[in-house]
């Protein structure tokens, strides 16, 4: 219901946005989907993946390579981008999920950096740090408004899927594994297979985000696979709050708009970002979405008290 | 044939021998107590049976089938359910959700990605039934994190019962309960499980409760079986008084 309203609002927003506004909101939706995919692992399954850039980048490169080298139409590359990122997630997940905590996190980081190195050095295939450019989708999807609607559609499908997943037996099983893995396995939940599927789903959704981002930017570079991309998902999630369903998407929007704002005025964006994260972690551990919920709670209580007093 | 047979099981932790050749048979339909002082290896034996870690040597046979080294979730799905000594059910869920998830887990039915948990009516009914058995039906909508220890313990038992298990393992079901709660739990275990024909293997430090509930007792001490017998025999065994009863009886 609340999700439906959000999607409707974004739908109506389209025609009133400027060219620049469309691009910015599209990018926020893409980063939002990417951060939500990260949070499926982080919040529900209790896994801190520092290698999400691998799936984001593979989705982007699958699209870029097929469009530029094989002449595929942009949209036709979507299923391949999804499958490729899911497959890479399956392999990386299979090898890392058995490890515990910090080792899992380090291994996901290592695999992503490995893919980055490959994309960076393999000139003949990926173009190395020249990247793959000129990726404007043919036809109307090359225009900002239709592309915004495609982005919104995929965002809505992805977020709707994650919302359903959270309430499904699978979602509960992930939470059970996070809360108390030994207990979950003792009631018959196969920890490894559940976490692996969660990893693959998160990878596939990250791949969709990469696919869209490459088309939005009209180019794909090795930095799509670089660890700072993985960090963007984590930062968005901390900003927005991992414990609230839409928190990471809220955080992604806040992250982008703040970056635009700060970069327009100063050169100290990394400094501001660091300060902001510090404040969030220390004073608002539940993120912006948590702050919002608190405010809403106070207002509701205040109104009730006011009504009782009057 | 015994429902569960443990044969010559060894388990050591960093050189410390926690189980040193334990053998044990649990007859179908019996209430079998595993007693012994702190550190005797009771919980470790449960962990070996449920597959939490494999034994160094020896085997575990359930319904005539060797299950040694099986992963925990597969053992659970055979109908071998456990309630832990340290009850920490899923803290982020509501009571009803935790038990419903358990039901679906035993059935291997947690790979549904789109239907909400609330649509699995058979599992919800089973959860309600299991909660009623332990007297938690009116707490079904509470958050697990809000429950006092006694209720957590009963919830954890409900999460085992909801499997309709063939063999139920209870690791100190009375630990942390008040006197009244203990009486209630003992009464519940005796009547209900008897009626349903569940086989029970349990550990407990409460001597009175053990003698009241068990029809077979195995005494474990420093990873070895000291003696086994019916309550009458164990009560009069001098060795046991020293190790298990600590001379207080
Ligand atoms: N995972 C482990 N790692 C290292 N040592 C362990 C582990 N589990 C158990 N032990 C050791 O094995 C011995 C037996 O422990 P266990 O928990 O089985 O005893 P217990 O009979 O259940 O005792 P209690 O009555 O206190 O619950 C203890 O000395 C304990 O410290
Ligand atoms: Mg113990």
Automatic annotation (TrEMBL), chain A:
Principal subcellular localization: membrane
The entry's keywords: Cell membrane, Membrane, Transmembrane, Transmembrane helix
Chain ranges passing through the membrane: 28-46, 53-72, 78-97, 104-125, 145-165, 195-213, 233-257, 269-288
Superkingdom to which the source organism belongs: Bacteria
Keyword Ion transport: no
Its membrane topology: Multi-pass membrane protein
InterPro entries the UniProt entry points to: ABC_transp_permease, LivM-like
Cellular compartments annotated: Cell membrane
Protein name: Branched-chain amino acid ABC transporter permease
Automatic annotation (TrEMBL), chain B:
ABC transporter domain mapped to chain residues: 4-247
Molecular functions (GO terms): ATP binding
Keyword set, alphabetical order: ATP-binding, Nucleotide-binding, Transport
Matches recorded under SUPFAM superfamilies: P-loop containing nucleoside triphosphate hydrolases
InterPro entries hit by this protein: AAA+_ATPase, ABC_AA/LPS_Transport, ABC_transporter-like_ATP-bd, BCA_ABC_TP_C, P-loop_NTPase
Entry-linked Pfam families: ABC_tran (PF00005), BCA_ABC_TP_C (PF12399)
Keyword S-adenosyl-L-methionine: no
Keyword ATP-binding: yes
Name of the protein: ABC transporter ATP-binding protein
Native source species: Thermus composti
